[in-house]
Amino acid sequence: MLSAAKAQPQLNLTDSLVETIAAGARFVRRHAIASIYHAGSGHPGGALSSADLFAALFGAELNFWPDNPGDPARDRFVLSKGHAAPALYAIGAYHGFCDPKAALALRKLHSPFQGHPHIGDLPWTESSTGSLGQGFSVALGMAMGLKLQKSQSRVYTMLGDGEMQEGEVWEAAMCAAHHKLDNLCVLVDYNKLQSDDRNDNIMRLEPLAAKWRAFDWAVAEIDGHDIAQILSAFRRVSSTHGRPAIVIAHTIKGKGVPYMENIPHWHGSVKLTRLQAEDALRALGADPREITELLDVSF
Amino acid sequence: MSASSAPSLIAQTGDSLREAFGKALSGMADEFSNVVVLDADIAGGTGLHHFRKSHPDRFLQFGIAEQNMMAAAGGLAAVGLLPVVTTFAVFCLRAVEQARLSLAYCRRNAKIVASHPGIDVGPDGGSAQALEDLAAFRAIPGMTVISPADPVEMALATRAILQFDGPVYMRTGRSPARRIFGDDHVFHIGEGRIVCKGRDVTIVACGVEVARALDAAEILAREKISARVVNMATIKPIDSELLARCSRETGAIVTAEDHNIHGGLGGAVAESLAATAPCPIEFVGVRDTFGASGEPDELAAHFGIDAKAIAEAARRAIARKKKRH
Question: What is the pLDDT of residue A12?
C-alpha cells in the first residue's frame, strides 16, 4: 500500500507520486477548513501551512498499517505542535485511521477529535500533545527506547516555529544529539507567524538553521510546499548516521486560502462563518458538490 | 497487589530512604528487565548510583534538564519500557506540567521517584526543600502518590510501584531514616496501616513524620493519653475506610507531614473525612511558609513538625473533641 511504501533513495520521483501526495494535501486542507468551520473554533493557519508536510510524511515516508495501528514495527509520528490537530485528523482520515466524516466533528463533546490530540481518544496519535515542547521530548524518549530495543523503527515529530521559544525544545535538542539519536527526525513548519504576531516581533528565531547545526543536528532547509523537495529531504535525513535530523520547512501560514495567507489572525483559534468556509474551500479547488459534502453535515 | 518479600539488597539500619530506594531498585532490576532509570545529573544524590553501577546500559542520562526528562519518560513508556524518573522533589515541581500531559493524561506506566522532599533536606535550605510536591502531584488525575516511612517500607514500595500499572509519584528522603518496621512488614498501595494502637486520638502520618508520630504517642502515653498512629504511606488514593474507622473509634485526628499544611496529606485526610465521618482535625506541617538551612531535627522543631508539636496538636484535637460532647 502507498502509506507503507517508503521512498527509496534510488527511486525516481515520478510525477505520479508527487501528484498522489498533492491530492492528499488538498484533502487535508479542505477537511481541516471544514472541521474548523463545524467546530466554531480552531487554528486554520498552521493546518494549512503544514498540509504538504503531513501529506508527504504519511504518503511516502512513514511505515504504518492502519488496520494494525499498534504494530510495534511501525514508525512513530508525534504532533508536537498539537494545535495543528485538524491537519493530523485529516491525514489520518485520508489514510484510513479514522472515518473522514466522523473526523469533521472537531472539538465537540463526546467526539474523540479534541482540540488537541489525545491518545486516550485516538491511540494512533501516539501521544497527547498541545503544550508546546512536550511532543518533541516524547518523540525523543520513543527514539531512545526503540534504539535500546534495537528496533529499526524511526520517529518523526512536527514542531511549530513559535514552539521553539520553549526552553524544553533546546533541552531535547541537546539530549538527542548527545545520545546520537539518528532514528529521530524533527519537521519544522516554519511559517514565520505565531499567535500574536510575526516570530521576529515576538521572539526572534534566526539564525535558526545555524542554531540546530551548532547543536550538532543534520539540517535540511527546504520549501515546505514543494513536495519533491520534501521527499528529497526525507531521503537525505534518513541516512544521517550518528546524528538526529531536522527538516526546516519554509511555509506560508494559511497556504492555499488567499484571505488567510500570512495574516497572524488566522493562526489563533477562530470562528469561520459559512461564507468564509465556502470561500476557503473554493480557493482550495473544491467544487460545489464537495463543498456541500463537507459543510452540510449534522452531528 | 500481592504482599512482597524483602529484596536482595537489604537496606541497612540508618540508611536514608534514598539509599534504600537505590539499593532496592538495583536489586530488582534483573527481575523487572524493562526498567530504565532516567537521571538528571544527580544519581549520587538520589541513590541511583547503585543502579548506574549495576545496570549502566539501562541508566539514561538527561543532564540538568528535567522538563525534557519527564516528558521523554512518556516516550520510553510508549515503546514498552518501564521508566523510573529520578531527581530531587523540588525539580519534579519544575516538570509538573510534563508529568500531567505526557505521563498522566497519556496514562503511561511511568514512575517518578523524588528524593530530598521537605525540610528533611536540611542544610541546602529553603530553595531546595520541596513543601508543595504532594499537593501538586495529588491534583493530577490518575496520579498515585506515595511516601514510605522507613527503609524496609521503601524497599517494599519500590517493588509495589514496579508491579503497579500506572503513573506514580513517590517520595524518598535525604536524611538517615530510623528503621520502624520488621522484616514481616507488608505494603499495599492504597492501604493505611495502624502501627500503634490507641483510642483517644489518631495521628495520621506519612514519610519521616511516622517516626515522629510514634515518638509523640510515647510522650502522650506518659500523660495517660492513648494515641493511635496510622502510617498513611499512600496519600492518593487515600484509605478512606481506615480514616472513617479511626474517626469513629477515636473521635479526633491529627495529620503529620513534612510538607505545607495545604494540599498534602492533611488536605487529603480532611477531604475524605468531610465526606464520611467528620471529627476535629489538627494539621501538623510547615505552616504555609518556605524552609530554611539547618539540621533536619533542628528544622523540625523550628517549623513545628517534631514529636513535641505532634503531641501538642493531639492534645488540641482531644480538647476540641471533648468540647463537642
Answer: 58
Residue A269's pLDDT band, with cuts at 50, 70 and 90, is confident
Query: Which among B67, B97, B107 has the least Cβ separation from residue A171?
Result: B67
- Rounded to a whole number of angstroms, the distance from the CA of B100 to the nearest CA of chain A is 10
Q: Give the start-end residues of each E strand in chain B.
A: 35-39, 59-61, 82-88, 111-115, 144-146, 168-171, 193-196, 201-205, 227-231, 234-236, 253-260, 281-286
Q: CB B58: neighbour CB atoms within 10 A?
A: 18
Dihedrals phi, psi of A185, to nearest 5 degrees: -135, 125
User: Which of B33, B59, B60, B68 is the best residue to mutate to test the A interface, defined by the most A CB atoms within 10 Å of its own CB?
Assistant: B68
The answer to whether B79 contacts A140, with C-beta atoms less than 8 Å apart, is: no
Nearest-CB residue to B102 (from A127, A151, A171) = A127
Cα B257–Cα B150–Cα B282 angle in degrees, nearest 5: 20
**Whole-number Å distance between alpha carbons of A50 and A88:** 9
Q: Round to whole Å and give the CA distance between B131 and B120.
A: 10
**Residue B246 cell numbers, joined:** 479511626
- Return the SS3 of A162: helix
The reply to whether residue A145 touches residue B106, judged by beta carbons under 8 angstroms, is: no
What gap in Å lies between CA B271 and CA B175, rounded to an integer?
30
Q: Distance, in angstroms, between B130 CA and closest chain A CA?
A: 22
ipTM score assigned to the predicted complex = 0.94
Dihedral sign of CA atoms B209, B215, B219, B222 in order = positive
Question: Is-contact B102 A128, C-beta < 8 A?
Answer: yes
Residue among B63, B73, B97 whose CB faces A141 most closely: B73
Calculate the dihedral angle through the C-alpha atoms of B165, B169, B173, B174, rounding to the nearest 10 degrees.
Answer: 110
Residues of B in contact with A175 (CB under 8 A): 62-63, 65, 68, 72
Chain A: nearest CA to B28, how far in angstroms?
19
Is B271 annotated in the active site? no
Dump pLDDT digits (tens) for A175-224.
999 999 999 999 999 999 998 899 999 999 999 999 999 999 999 999 99
Alpha helices in chain A (DSSP H): 15-39, 44-56, 85-94, 134-148, 167-178, 199-202, 208-214, 227-237, 274-283, 288-295
Chain B neighbors of A141, CB-CB under 8 A:
71-79, 83
Catalytic residue chosen out of the listed positions B66, B153, B257, B282: B66
Taking only the tens place, the pLDDT of each residue in B61-107 is 999 999 999 999 999 999 999 999 999 999 999 999 999 999 999 99
